[in-house]
Amino acid sequence: MFTDLTITLFAGFNEVGLPKGSQLGAIDTDGYEVSLQVKSGSETEITYRQFYVAFNQTPTDYNQGILRLLKTLQFSDGTTSAMVYEVYPYEPS
């Protein structure tokens, strides 16, 4: 059985603790608030994941890792956009 979680993302890097095996769902907006829907099972072990949100620009900080674009959102005012990425940390060499 899955439980729905909603996470509010802020501009810049966002690190969240999610139950292991969680599945990403829809990315929605409410006004200028960006939220990520997550489906999680009954797993109690936590895994940490990072997300990055850039408003009206492309990312400027790649220090945390490799960015994978999840979704580009256009707000109703027609001039504001947000790009939501998942961050994959660099592997130590």
Uncertain ranges = none
Structural class: mainly beta
Provide the helix percentage. under 10%
Series of secondary-structure elements, N-terminal to C-terminal: EEEEEEE
Q: Name the overall outline.
A: flat
User: How many individual helices?
Assistant: 0
Mean pLDDT: 84
What is the CA-atom radius of gyration, in angstroms? Answer: 14 Å
Described by strand count, sense and barrel closure, the largest sheet is: 4 strands, antiparallel
Structural overview:
The structure is a single chain. This protein has 93 residues and is mainly beta. Helix content is 0%, strand content 62%. It contains no helices and seven strands. The strands form two sheets. It has a four-stranded antiparallel β-sheet with strand order 2-5-7-6, with no helix packed on it. Strands 1-4-3 form a three-stranded antiparallel β-sheet, with no helix packed on it. A hairpin with a 6-residue loop joins strand 6 and strand 7. The protein is flat. The model has no long low-confidence stretch (mean pLDDT 84).
